[in-house]
Amino acid sequence: MKHRIVVLGAGYAGAYTAGNLAHRLSGADTEVTVVNAEPDFVQRMRLHMLAVGREIKAPKLADVFAGTGIRLRLARVTAVDPERRVVAVADADGGAELGYDTLVYALGSNGDVGRVPGAAEHAFDVAARPSALRLRARLDALDERGGAADVVVVGDGLTGIETAAEIAEARPGLSVTLVARGALGARLSAGARVHLRRACARLGVTVREHTAVEAVEATRVLCADGAVLASDATVWTAGFAVAPIAAAGGLEVTEHGRIVVDRTMRSVSHPDVYAIGDSADAVGDNGRPLPMSCSSAACTSQQAIEAIIGRLTGRPVTHAKLAYTYNHISLGRRDAILQLIDGEGRARPRHMGGRKIARVKSSLLSISLWATSHPTLGMPTRRHRLAPATDTSAERTAAPAEKASA
Q: Is the CB of residue 242 less than 8 Å from the CB of residue 257?
């Protein structure tokens, strides 16, 4: 039997990893399956743009993986059982179990709307395509209604800043307020903070600093200092959370549910499981946890690829660089900030900003989409065979290839 590699999630990290493994490992003794709930590739870094009405490309995953040998299973992951080495999935036909020999967990994260009362019921987020489309429908309704309307964006991380700027630029008839728990852009350099404040003033974004949100209601946001903000649409960007699937399956996770991994992205509790992207609690080369970001997804994916190929083929495991080196923040379509980060995770004194940096950001997003849509293009044509010790077919007694759930 072939060695079964199952990749959960086809975002940036999952699609990239699956494509690399399928192309670099021989199909004679390995098979790669990708499980994803949606049929399209989602450009998560552009979801705030989708929310304001811009058309964002969403390639069909069936087209992305065509000709690669990757099997695509459109289903929602409901459970992971690392002891039996199976994954439970659900789709329109019911439930099933997929067996694996190596699992790559890349289910990503969603908006953390569970920490504040009312956020889950009344707030929108841009962490997933369906929620971004719901926000888009709400903004459309506000525009059609006419008259004054208030949008409150809670959270001044990169997503919050980009979302507030995008809404203010694309929907000038709306009044946009950005709520920052501390000082606006506190992690940026002094010059970048000045640039950011000027951009908010230019776009008409009202900034409330040093403000904690206690509750979200249908038409207002309640702050810890007693302030009440009128809100016809509240957008929640104050953090991200992972699904409880890994924790429920018995994998060792952090208090926030992210899988604890070693330097090679291998689960410290279950060596057949690798975690990448937002799902992994990975430590960078500077000894600090890697933040949830596209940059972290790229380097953790590369490390997992090298580790899996090395171990399966009997080669030394290469250590990829695990570093977070910059923040690239869009401020609408014609402005952006590039902030370099030093080895200690702090902002370097200098930054770059303006229209040219916005074009660079747009180009990087386009390159990311192109690379994901062509997951094996440009890779070496020689595929590695598995080492004899990795042929575990004789050991499989509890993990069926696929069976219907009871």
A: yes
What are 266's strand-pairing partners? 274
Residue whose C-alpha is closest to residue 11's, from 48, 47, 41: 41
Residue 42: give its domain's CATH number.
3.50.50.60
Residue 207's CB: how many other CB atoms inside 10 A?
Answer: 20
Same domain, 223 and 294: no
My answer on whether 134 and 228 are in the same domain is: yes
Query: Could you tell me if 111 and 222 are in contact, meaning their C-beta atoms sit under 8 angstroms apart?
Result: no
- For residue range 280-306, list pLDDT tens digits in order: 999 999 999 999 888 899 999 999 999
Closest to 253 (Cα-Cα) out of 228, 284, 278 = 278
Query: Do 66 and 100 belong to one domain?
Result: yes
Inter-residue contact 105 to 259 (CB < 8 Å): yes
* CA angle centred on 50, ends 47 and 53, rounded to 5°: 160
Helix (H) or strand (E) holding 72: strand 71-74
- Tell me the backbone φ, ψ of residue 351, rounded to 5 degrees: -140, 170
87, 405 Cβ separation under 8 angstroms: no
- CA 394 to each of CA 85, 91, 232, 387: distance values in angstroms, whole numbers, following the listed order: 15, 31, 61, 15
Whether the CB-CB separation of 139 and 53 falls below 8 Å is answered with yes
What pLDDT digit, counting tens, does each position of 332-359 carry?
A: 999 999 999 998 889 999 999 999 999 9
Give the predicted TM-score (pTM) of the model.
Answer: 0.90
Domain count, the chain: 2
H-assigned helices in 171-323: 190-203, 245-248, 294-313
